[in-house]
């Protein structure tokens, strides 16, 4: 199977998780972090699911799944140990042409979830096309050591610079060489070393006076 790699915008979209145990809870956490409107259906659920439901972060229906739960749903994740139920969710989703993932069962998914390294707005996705989730996890751990929190801070700064340049009526095509100069000059390493003075000097040199790290990050 050759999968088509894609990042989905699920903000405010209805997403269903069938199963409220440990696996389901992890899926719920990721969906909520991306702004989805999450519903969990399961006879039992973890303390995390109950807590999020009590806080109004998700809807929890303490019962068995039925096919009507898919009405109006953009994406469904099956996270149960019941193989018969998992296949039923898959069949129901296929009839509705709904995005469907069954945890650890790529043969009954129309999309699979990669192993993810997240550093703020930086997301690195690793997939083995379902052939070896264990190897994907191993690669994620290696990448997690290589890409530290400075990458998230770097993207916050770059986003703030971009917003300010656009606000000053710069043409977007003029931005590319400026960003390339900042990258080649080692801005990322400076952030990793928390060298604010060097960052400010570089920003002033490339972008002009008035560009300072602290004020830009606060603006973002």
For this structure, the CATH topology of the largest domain is Rossmann fold
Please give the number of β-strands.
7
Q: What level of helicity do the residues show? A: 40-55%
What is the CATH H-level superfamily of the largest domain? Answer: NAD(P)-binding Rossmann-like Domain
Strand fraction: 15-25%
- Helix and strand run: EHEHEEHEEEHHHHHH
Identify the CATH architecture of the largest domain. 3-Layer(aba) Sandwich
Q: State the end-to-end CA separation.
A: 41 Å
Question: Any overview of this molecule?
Answer:
The protein is of the alpha/beta class. The chain has two domains: 14-113, Rossmann fold (3-Layer(aba) Sandwich), CATH 3.40.50; 150-219. It is built from nine helices and seven strands. It has helices at residues 22-33, 47-54, 83-96, 133-146, 150-167, 175-184, 187-192, 196-207, 213-219; strands at residues 14-20, 37-45, 58-61, 75-78, 99-102, 115-119, 122-126. A five-stranded parallel sheet has the order 3-2-1-4-5, sandwiched between helices. The protein has a two-stranded antiparallel sheet with strand order 6-7. Helix 5 packs across helix 9. The radius of gyration is 22 Å and the shape is elongated. The two termini are 41 Å apart.
